[in-house]
Amino acid sequence: MKLSPSQIDTLKKLISYKGYPEIDLQYEILDHVACKVEVLLEEKHAMALDDAFRKVHGEFGIFGFSDLAESYTKSIEKRYQRFF
Fold first, then answer.
1. 46 vs 5, 26, 42, 49, 51, CA distance in Å?
2. Could you read off the pLDDT of 13-62 as tens digits, one per residue?
3. Angle between helices 49-59 and 23-43 (to 10 degrees)
4. What's the CA gap between 13 and 84, in Å, rounded?
5. Distance, C-alpha 49 to centroid of its chain
6. What's the maximum distance between 2 C-alpha atoms anywhere in the chain?
7. 3-class SS at 84?
């Protein structure tokens, strides 16, 4: 199952609402979340997109997306340190 553009926009808004306003970070999180949401919606056709997002967010643990955000930030820092 593939998510529609409107569903992807909804996921972007939900990620932004969780406190990640940076576009590049949103896309990194969106990539992980969209894959897991697609699997959930394929397994449970009656599940709403918001409920699938909450379930996926819960799978990331008590810190939510912060671990993913931190690892992404560290990889960006490493890339820039190589340039300078």
1. 19, 26, 9, 9, 10
2. 888 888 887 888 888 889 989 999 999 999 988 899 989 998 988 888 77
3. 110
4. 35
5. 13
6. 51
7. coil
pTM for the structure as a whole: 0.74
Token output for 76: 């960006």
Chain CA centroid to CA 24, Å: 11
**In residues, how long is the chain?**
84
Angle between helices 23-43 and 66-83 (to 10 degrees): 140
d(CA 34, CA 14): 12
Q: For the residues of 6-72, what is the DSSP string, one character each?
A: HHHHHHHHHHHHTT---HHHHHHHHHHHHHHHHHHHHH-TT--HHHHHHHHHHHT-TTTTHHHHHHH
Q: What local confidence, expressed as pLDDT, does residue 73 receive?
A: 83
